[in-house]
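Need tokens for this chain, all 209 residues.
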Amino acid sequence: MRGLNGGANNGRGGAVRRAAVYLRVSTGGQSAANQRPEVAAIVSTRGLVLVGEYIETASGGPTAARPEFGRLMADARAARFDVLVIWALDRFGRSMVGNLGAVLELDRLGVEVVSVRESWLDTGGPVRALLLAIFSWVAEQERERLGERTRAGLERARSNGVKLGRPERRIDLRAAVRLHAGGLSWARVARQLKVPSTTLARALERVKK
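Here are the structure tokens for all 209 residues:
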């Protein structure tokens, strides 16, 4: 957690409520910058004192590690902030069960969760838990449909003859064979030609066929 600080009158129940912010993007090419202004506005309008930020980048699939989320939960258990501000539930967790469990644990720890996109998170009582489960499920279904559409698009592209992925690097196979005949291993030949050894191996396999 970056930016945590101590100080008087910042404990739970005091006049000053400490806020932490969690921002997450799903791929390395994205930025959390578009989430930040609205999250900062909530911190400001509610008179919260920002004591830290957790910014998760390129968190990947459901089983990928989320170190910032882990630090967030550890700091929540250590009572280092009173309010957690997020941009949206689908940016907080990746599944209905995960979202529900994390938010309810924060509830038990006395940490209020505030979302830019889901104002109903401020609702108390059993209705809140029900709404949280419903909306987390909706977000999860939307992500699954997006993944299905992406996979369908890739399959259509492949069926139309479109080659996906990075273009294969061109290799001077004559030079490769000459270097290998001169006593170099294929791994050293690949280094000499400045290409990955796997790329060289695939090129040689194609020539053999």
